[in-house]
Design a protein that fits this description.
A hairpin with an 8-residue loop joins strand 5 and strand 6. 64% of the residues lie in helices and 15% in strands. The strands form two sheets. It has a four-stranded antiparallel sheet. The protein has a three-stranded antiparallel sheet with strand order 1-7-4, with helices on one face. Helix 2 packs across helix 6. With 451 residues, it is α+β, with helices and mostly antiparallel strands. It is elongated.
Length: 451
């Protein structure tokens, strides 16, 4: 308990506890990002565009109707009829035509291919939605990580400053040498530089929030101290890989692309196949000239049109070869994605188990560092240790506290990445994580100038 209180005090050096300051939670930031993130917006537009392919390809196998019309003024002269009135007349007509594809394998295969294109678009957009969850989380915990570094450097500088004041007092009464004062001053100057760098890093860590949310957010909530750290469940690496093979969106997109390429090869081969279309036409013609059928003619026709391609200059053969290469590329890409997903899942599964052990070890390391510092300070008081030993022990303690905080944040991100890899990451995971953020402990963007 004493160790946890010490950590909370140290890492809270730059955390504001005023309840009047509203801190943005992970859930609130994600909800803003869904609306304002340009990367997700672009992905959504691409998805909606590709989703129209099904409607367009279906139109190729459905009947289509067209209406055409024409009017023309004519002038005719002949030796037997020189009258201008008899030689000027108007012809006009209109026609309605209905076409129904009857046998067009290329259109049918394109319609089937469009479903695979749609499935690929859905998978890609779903992957982008998961990527937004990860990007929001990484940005948020990068802020917490940068703030932990700033807290540690501030705490170290404050401790070194107190040590410098004590050494100066001891030097003034002749208890220590001037070298102790110089060592303490050098340590204080070095810690001041570290604080300046950490302040800049903490401030810039907030910048991606503007791109994600469209708002200049400057206050976020801190992670609670008792956030649970536990190993992946199930504790079976192969089970996680099997789940990834079923649900990973990159894999689903690659499989859909393979099916689309298979249809593409079928489409290319239909260049040698005949096509049959049925047509119904209604026509009305009016002519101002005299003819054997009269001035007005109504006509209806039913036709069956057959087209048998014989030779297209080698274009069909080339298209078949091209589609075959595309199919081979899709197969190779699927194999690559499967291997990448399996590799990433296994690495993340191992990383989380390592993170769990690391967090526990870092916590014990803080206890050891605190004990070492206490012993070194006692030794310095009795003359068995020098000021450098004390300063090193202080630095080790604050480094251990920062490493503990960083290990916790790394665990959180690795857990989300594992869920992304297996395709199960969803907004509920961020909402659940957001419940472990304490709105009473807020982190404000640093705008101070270190003096």
């Amino acid at each position: 308990m004493k160790i946890r209180q010490t950590i909370a005090r140290t890492l809270g050096a730059v955390i504001l506890t005023s309840a009047s300051v509203h801190a943005e939670t992970l859930e609130e930031i994600y909800n803003l990002a869904v609306i304002n993130d340009p990367q997700l917006g672009a992905a959504q537009a691409v998805f909606l565009s590709q989703n129209e392919v099904v409607t367009q390809s279906r139109a190729r196998i459905l009947p289509n109707v067209s209406l055409v019309g024409q009017t023309s003024n004519n002038m005719r002269r002949s030796p037997t009829n020189p009258s201008p009135a008899a030689s000027n007349f108007n012809d006009h007509n209109w026609a309605a035509v209905l076409n129904q594809p009857i046998f067009r394998l290329d259109s049918w295969y394109r319609f089937q291919q469009s479903k695979s294109i749609q499935a690929e678009a859905i998978a890609n957009f779903s992957a982008e939605q998961q990527a937004l969850l990860v990007r929001v989380s990484q940005t948020y915990f990068s802020i917490l990580d940068a703030n932990a570094a700033l807290s540690a450097t501030n705490a170290e500088r404050n401790a070194v400053q107190r040590q410098l004041e004590q050494v100066q007092q001891r030097f003034d009464v002749g208890l220590v040498a001037i070298t102790d004062v110089l060592e303490s001053q050098a340590a204080y100057d070095s810690s001041t530089v570290n604080v300046i760098e950490s302040e800049g890093a903490q401030s810039t860590a907030f910048e991606p929030l503007l791109r994600l949310t469209g708002r200049n957010l400057t206050v976020v909530s801190a992670l609670v101290e008792d956030f649970p750290i536990k190993a992946p469940d199930p504790k079976n690496e192969d089970a996680w890989v099997d789940t990834a093979f079923q649900n990973n969106y990159s894999l689903l997109a690659a499989r859909a692309k393979l099916r689309s390429a298979e249809r593409g090869l079928q489409i290319a081969k239909t260049g040698h196949y005949p096509t049959i279309d049925g047509q119904v036409a209604w026509a009305h013609n009016v002519s101002g000239s005299n003819n054997l059928l009269g001035n007005k003619i109504d006509q209806r026709s039913l036709s069956l049109n057959l087209n048998v391609p014989i030779y297209q200059g080698g274009g069909v053969k080339s298209a078949v070869k091209q589609a075959g290469y595309n199919l081979d590329a899709a197969r190779q890409n699927l194999d690559l994605v499967e291997k990448q997903v399996a590799e990433a899942t296994r690495i993340l599964y191992t990383a989380i188990n390592t993170d769990v052990a690391r967090v526990r070890a870092r916590l014990r390391g803080i206890e050891s560092s605190q004990s070492a510092l206490d012993a070194t300070q006692t030794g310095y008081e009795v003359g068995t240790r020098n000021i450098v030993d004390v300063l090193n022990a202080q630095q080790s303690l604050y480094l251990s506290q920062f490493q503990y905080a960083k290990a916790r944040y790394t665990y959180v991100i690795d857990t989300l990445l594992l869920k992304q890899s297996v395709g199960t990451l969803n907004p509920e995971d961020l909402y659940a994580l957001s419940r472990f953020l304490d709105d009473k402990e807020t982190i404000s963007r640093n705008t101070a100038t270190t003096r």
